[in-house]
Structures are given as structure tokens and as C-alpha cells.
């Protein structure tokens, strides 16, 4: 099994978010071409410390891709710490993210490309809460498997695009190994501390990108924490090697496909997430139960 390495390290800056005062955001993929980030289209790190009052956010559409939403810090109500949602927008969906009360949140949201033949799949929502996420915990590290597999644990989520999404918390000098197919693109995003991979050190706020290879088979990523309470995420996925067009909330295969998506939305042809059938919403539990109609 060949060791995978980090080719480049990128770092972007915090800016004021679209929700106004109390919202800062970092566009983690800024400056990285889709050819290198494929199948990840967008990656936002949002920190909210909102005072409450007038509504911010609201109902908005998506189509042509999937959203991966991880709540790093929640409010234990509608935004629960450690919860994760995989929403397949597919042929079109409307959902509402409106905040009126005082909130302190941190959320990671990634847009994941759908395979071209499944670009307009039926909308679907999958959810898993913190207590049900497959987890390994030792005195040296904690690993939570939201997507894919790690060290014998497998996420229950069903995916159109094979991907890995794993959260790591390591004590100083702890070392963990992670298998990643050689053909996967991906990044290590550090939230706190420093992580060493080969001869590269990735610090808090930075993303270390896996080297690209045309080889097939299994690879191994060896990660070492250089600071106490090091916290980082690994996102990796099977690239599609097909260009996509993003315009606002929509992703398509060509520019010509964007306008019809806007028309369908304005004509009310996109269902609201709340109106999907029970069979289109599922919540996974650690005991193997799967509840329909995720809440």
C-alpha cells in the first residue's frame, strides 16, 4: 500500500458572511481549480455569533449537486452539535435556513458533485446525529466517520459519489493511519493545532491537498498531531473528471442548462424539503435502525 502525500497547502481568509453582523465565513476552495478539487465544488466554513432580531437567511433553491452539512458547534435545538446532513438536491429542492434568535454556531458545508448520469436525481435527505456517528475513542485520539470508512468503521450513509468525510481529534504526537483510494482527490482541513503528513505541516486554518495520481488501488495517509487537542477534517472523493458549471445555487453540465433551472424554480416546480415523502428522508441510528422522515 503506497503512502499518500500532501502536494500543496492553501490558506484563505475570513470575510464577512451574507447573514450580516456576527457572521464570518471562509471559502476553503478559493484559488483551487475544480480540476484539482473535483468532486468538491464549494467548501464554506461559517462561524455565526448572531444577536437575533430580524430574520436572516430564508428559503432558497438548489439543484444539480449534493450538500454535506456538518454542525461543529450547535445550539442543541435545530442545530445539534456533531449532526450531519447529506442532502441530494438533484432535480431541484427548496429549503429554508432562517434564523431569528440569538445563535452561536459553526458549520462546515461542502457541495459535492453528482455523477453526470445522476445530476438530476430525485431529492433525498439523510441525517445522522452525533450519538449515532460511528466513532473510535482511545486515550490518544477520537475518530468520527461521517462518510466512507476508517479503521474498521463504516458510515451508514448511501452515496451517489463515493466519498470520505472523517473528523479527527488527536492528542500531541498521536499518529493515525487512514486508507484512501489512490484515485481520490481530497484535503485535510485543520481546525485547531498542527498536523504533519510526510514532510508537510498543515496548521489551523489551512488545507493540505492530496497529491494527484493516475494510479489505482489503496493508499494510506499517515497523520501526526504536533499540538495538544489537534482537530481536523478529512474530505476525499472519487473525481468525475467532467467539467461542471456553477451559477448561484445551481450546478449543471453546461451553461445552457442553468436558465431552465431558474424557470422551474420560479414556476414552483421544486418541492420544499419539508414536503418530501417519508421515504425521501431518513435518519440513521447506531443500533442499525433507520427512521424515515428525518427531522
Description:
The chain is mostly beta strands. It has helices spanning 34-37, 258-266; strands at 2-3, 6-11, 15-16, 23-27, 40-50, 56-62, 65-73, 84-88, 93-99, 103-113, 124-128, 135-137, 141-147, 149-150, 153-154, 163-170, 175-181, 185-192, 194-197, 200-203, 206-210, 218-225, 230-237, 245-247, 250-252, 281-284, 290-292. The protein is 4% helix and 51% strand. The longest helix has 9 residues, at 258-266. The mean pLDDT is 93.
User: Treating each run of at least 4 consecutive H or I residues as one helix, how many helices?
Assistant: 2
* SSE pattern, N- to C-terminal: EEEEHEEEEEEEEEEEEEEEEEEEEEHEE
End-to-end span in angstroms?
41 Å
**C-alpha geometry:** globular
Low-confidence runs: none
- Percentage of residues in strands: over 45%
Spatial order of the strands forming the largest sheet: 3-4-5-10-7-8-11-26-27
Residues in helices, as a percent range = under 10%
Q: Averaged pLDDT, please?
A: 93
Number of strand elements: 27
Largest sheet: 9 strands, mixed
- Structural class, please? mainly beta
Q: Radius of gyration from the CA trace?
A: 19 Å
Features:
mainly beta, 7-stranded antiparallel sheet, 2 helices, 4% helix
In short:
This protein has 295 residues and is mainly beta. It has helices at 34-37, 258-266; strands spanning 2-3, 6-11, 15-16, 23-27, 40-50, 56-62, 65-73, 84-88, 93-99, 103-113, 124-128, 135-137, 141-147, 149-150, 153-154, 163-170, 175-181, 185-192, 194-197, 200-203, 206-210, 218-225, 230-237, 245-247, 250-252, 281-284, 290-292. The model has no long low-confidence stretch (mean pLDDT 93).
Amino acid at each position: 500500500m503506497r503512502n499518500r502525500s500532501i502536494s500543496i497547502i492553501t490558506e484563505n481568509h475570513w470575510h464577512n458572511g451574507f447573514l450580516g453582523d456576527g457572521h464570518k465565513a471562509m471559502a476553503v476552495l478559493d484559488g483551487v481549480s475544480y480540476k484539482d478539487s473535483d468532486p468538491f465544488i464549494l467548501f464554506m466554513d461559517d462561524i455565526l455569533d448572531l444577536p437575533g432580531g430580524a430574520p436572516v437567511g430564508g428559503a432558497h433553491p438548489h439543484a444539480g449537486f449534493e450538500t454535506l452539512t456538518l454542525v461543529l458547534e450547535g445550539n442543541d435545538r435545530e442545530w445539534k452539535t456533531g449532526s450531519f446532513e447529506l442532502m441530494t438536491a438533484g432535480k431541484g429542492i427548496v429549503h429554508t435556513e432562517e434564523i431569528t434568535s440569538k445563535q452561536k454556531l459553526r458549520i462546515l458545508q461542502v457541495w459535492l458533485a453528482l455523477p453526470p448520469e445522476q445530476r438530476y436525481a430525485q431529492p433525498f435527505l439523510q441525517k445522522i446525529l452525533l450519538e449515532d456517528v460511528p466513532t473510535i475513542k482511545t486515550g490518544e485520539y477520537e475518530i468520527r466517520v461521517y462518510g466512507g470508512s476508517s479503521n474498521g468503521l463504516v458510515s451508514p450513509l448511501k452515496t451517489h459519489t463515493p466519498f470520505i468525510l472523517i473528523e479527527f481529534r488527536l492528542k500531541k504526537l498521536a499518529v493515525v493511519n487512514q486508507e484512501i483510494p489512490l484515485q481520490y482527490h481530497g484535503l485535510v482541513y485543520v481546525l485547531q493545532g498542527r498536523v504533519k503528513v510526510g514532510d508537510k505541516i498543515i496548521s489551523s486554518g489551512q488545507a493540505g491537498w492530496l497529491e494527484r495520481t493516475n494510479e489505482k488501488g489503496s493508499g494510506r495517509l499517515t497523520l501526526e498531531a504536533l499540538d495538544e487537542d489537534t482537530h481536523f477534517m478529512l474530505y476525499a472523493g472519487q473525481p468525475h473528471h467532467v467539467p461542471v458549471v456553477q451559477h448561484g445555487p445551481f450546478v449543471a453540465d453546461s451553461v445552457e442548462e442553468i436558465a431552465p433551472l431558474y424557470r422551474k424554480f420560479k414556476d414552483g416546480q421544486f418541492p420544499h424539503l419539508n414536503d418530501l415523502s417519508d421515504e425521501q428522508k431518513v435518519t440513521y441510528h447506531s443500533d442499525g435502525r433507520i427512521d424515515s422522515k428525518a427531522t
